[in-house]
Write a structure and sequence with these properties.
The complex is a heterodimer. Chain A is mostly beta strands. Chain A is built from no helices and eleven strands. Helices cover about 0% and strands about 55% of the residues of chain B. The chains are: A mainly beta, B mainly beta.
Chain lengths: ~120, ~120
């Protein structure tokens, strides 16, 4: 149990375009999901907390208008990187919190390359 | 904010050897989680610890939640080549406030196993 999927697994886009990444909890309902960013050989950096039915909570230094998060259902959260630039190229990973427990299960990640 | 110090940063061992890594925190955590991440993948949850003093095993892996609630260790016995990867500890702060549900990650331990 506790499977989380992400789509797409990788994406290449031109500078200035927007990219949407989906995160789904496949076998449980997640009222809370998290979005992370990871640079090569570094740890995970939390970007925002996605709450079903309410606005996301962004970490300090993360532009909410740049990284739009929508958590419209108990099994789906989306991250949209708007007007992407090369510096947005990174590995984006979501996680979902298991209801009633403090553990989180991660998706397989999405590799974004902005040209 | 809370910080986790994970050590060692990297380990090079021979197949069959035992491995030990640990994390310490400057503050108290409710939950300790240990993850393994393979290149290009999302972290996979190995062991979750919810009580101070708890000792939990998962196959060749054993982890403990320190009595002080400020540290945890992970042991891998009889290592094999597929144990190669990056191991992260993560702590869940005491519930409540803006930190609820968020994980704080260690810097990671890169494990290399020579056949």
């Amino acid at each position: 149990g506790a499977v989380v999927s992400q789509h797409p697994s990788w994406v290449i886009c031109k500078s200035g375009t927007s990219v949407k990444i989906e995160c789904r909890s496949l076998d449980f309902q997640a009222t809370t999901m998290f979005w992370y960013r990871q640079f090569p050989k570094q740890s995970l950096m939390l970007m925002a907390t996605s709450n079903e039915g309410s606005k996301a909570t962004y970490e300090q230094g993360v532009e909410k208008d740049k990284f739009l998060i929508n958590h419209a259902s108990l099994t789906l959260s989306t991250l949209t990187v708007t007007s992407a630039h090369p510096e947005d190229s990174s590995f984006y990973i979501c996680s979902a919190r298991v209801p009633g427990r403090d553990s989180q299960y991660f998706g397989p990640g999405t590799r974004l390359l902005v040209l | 904010g809370q910080q986790l110090n994970q050590s060692p940063q990297s380990m090079f061992i021979q197949e069959g050897e035992d491995v030990s890594m640990n994390c310490t925190s400057s503050s108290i955590f409710n939950t300790w989680l240990w993850y393994k991440q393979d290149p290009g993948e999302g972290p996979v949850l190995l062991i979750a610890l919810y009580k101070a003093g708890e000792l939990t095993s998962n196959g060749r892996l054993t982890a403990q939640f320190g009595i002080t609630r400020k540290d945890s260790f992970l042991n891998i016995s009889a290592s094999i080549p597929s144990d190669v990867g990056i191991y992260f500890c993560a702590g869940q702060p005491v519930s409540g406030g803006t930190s609820y549900g968020k994980l704080t990650f260690g810097q990671g331990t890169i494990l290399t196993v020579h056949p």
